[in-house]
Write a structure and sequence with these properties.
Elements: E1 5-8, H1 14-24, H2 32-38, E2 48-52, E3 55-68, E4 74-85, H3 94-108, E5 113-116, H4 121-125, E6 130-131, E7 134-141, E8 156-160, H5 162-176, H6 188-200, E9 206-212, E10 215-225, E11 234-243, H7 246-256, E12 262-270, E13 286-293, E14 296-299, H8 302-308, E15 317-322, E16 331-336, E17 339-342, E18 349-352, H9 353-360, H10 366-371, E19 376-377, H11 381-389
Parallel strand pairs: 4-5, 11-12, 15-18
Antiparallel strand pairs: 1-2, 2-3, 3-4, 5-14, 6-14, 7-12, 7-13, 8-9, 9-10, 10-11, 15-16, 16-17, 18-19
Helix pairs in contact: 5-6
Length: 402
């Protein structure tokens, strides 16, 4: 079989590449009407393809974004999307070559990280991607979901129509800003591909917007789903929920739990530290359906990424990072409340780059990772210091599919 050429894709090849990605995930090729919006997932110079006899047989792609890190800084991040290889070209090392080219492409464009929500966890782990945020999926039985009197009841909630949301939601999401570590920017292309396409397809959903004293400060998108139970009651499936603070969060929950003819409210992604149970008179009215991996990060420039976030008050730790896939990205760093700088001091802890991604936003402790053999420990006391240095006041959360 002829060896594939790995190169940046031309504009004329984007649709073929998009079809490769769709078909590899068992979806049909894109229709002409769908392509009018789906084409916005491509920006010049960010898509890579594997070419055999002039045809695209494998592809990876990137969308520009920004990642909020502890301390509030936003780092240039590329969202990995639209990846796939034709089934007759799998198991030949093609995806490895595509990933190498993707990393080079992202680095050349100045991105410090790549973020994604991979379909295959085992595949991406070996390329240095690590789970950097987690989210909680909730199920709330409506008849058990009476809010406590102490829950804030500030502001108002209004429903907007899908057409109005095309202009309002992107502005509101940007206005919410970096309200938690892990939140990522949604580019105009993201909104076209992930939101406008759903609106134009006529998908039936409701959009609730919360307004406080300073204006709009949160939104929730939901749809009614038949749950098979007798009678008119339905399940509300909440697919997008972002709020700038406790009042907006409580207001949106109050709205969702007050809708009539509903058996249960199911929310796909919420922060793991959002204590919805304590908002209810009956703590058990809210059940955790699952704790899910959410945003996976691939750190492309370890020195810059470590230097960009803030650290809590603790004794300094010397951390060595090993990047087998991109050896030049390896290094040793002295991390303290003042920041992270390269050092030649002896390493107290050593981690692979995917393990650093798990701890980078404070989601997973170094001591936890050491307990399962993912941290090489030369100085045991350093684990507690590293845990404290990388800790965050609130749980990291993304809430955006990529």
């Amino acid at each position: 079989m002829r060896k594939a050429e790995i190169r940046r894709l031309e504009v004329a090849e984007y649709r073929a590449a998009y079809d490769v990605a769709r078909v590899s995930q068992h979806n049909p090729p894109v229709s002409t009407s769908e392509w009018d919006l789906a084409r916005h997932v491509y920006e010049p110079g960010l898509a890579v393809g594997a070419i055999v006899d002039g045809a695209v047989v494998g592809t990876v792609n990137l969308l520009p974004s920004q990642l909020t890190v502890p301390g509030g800084a936003s780092l240039p991040m590329a969202a990995s999307t639209g990846s796939g290889v034709h089934t007759d070209y799998t198991r030949q090392g093609l995806f490895n070559r595509l990933k190498q080219a993707q990393f080079d492409t992202a680095a050349e464009h100045g991105y410090l990280l790549i973020g994604n929500t991979p379909a295959q966890a085992t595949l991406y782990g070996r390329f240095g991607h690590g789970v950097s945020t987690q989210s909680r999926a909730l199920r709330i039985r409506k008849h058990e979901a009476r809010l406590r009197s102490e829950v804030p009841a500030e502001g108002t909630v209004r429903l907007i129509d899908p057409e109005s949301s095309l202009e309002l939601l992107p502005k509101l999401y940007e206005q919410l800003g970096p309200y938690r570590p892990g939140v990522i920017a949604r580019s105009a292309h993201w909104w076209k591909v992930y939101w406008e396409r759903a609106v134009r397809a006529g998908q039936h959903f409701r959009i609730a917007v919360h307004s406080g004293a300073a204006g709009d400060d949160g939104f929730a998108v939901y749809a009614a789903k038949d749950n098979g139970s007798p009678g008119p009651n339905v399940t509300l499936l909440v697919t997008d929920f972002h709020a700038a603070g406790p009042a907006a969060t409580a207001g949106l929950w109050r709205h969702l739990l007050s809708i009539d003819l509903v058996d249960e409210v199911c929310v796909r992604t919420r922060p793991t530290d959002e204590l919805v149970e304590a908002m209810l008179v009956d703590w058990r009215g809210c059940r955790t359906h699952s704790i899910d991996d959410e945003l996976w990060l691939r750190l492309l420039d370890v020195p810059a990424v470590l230097a960009a976030r803030t650290y809590c008050d603790a004794k300094p730790v010397v951390l060595e990072v090993v990047d087998a896939f991109r050896p030049a990205n390896s290094g040793r760093f002295r991390i303290s409340p003042e920041g992270a700088v390269p050092t030649s001091e002896t390493a107290q802890l050593t981690v692979d780059v995917d393990v650093l991604a798990m701890a980078y936003l404070g989601t997973t402790k170094f001591s936890t990772l050491a307990g399962i053999g993912r941290v090489e420990v030369a100085e045991p006391a350093a684990l507690a210091h590293a845990d404290r240095l990388f800790a965050t006041d609130v749980a990291s959360f993304c809430g955006t599919p990529v």
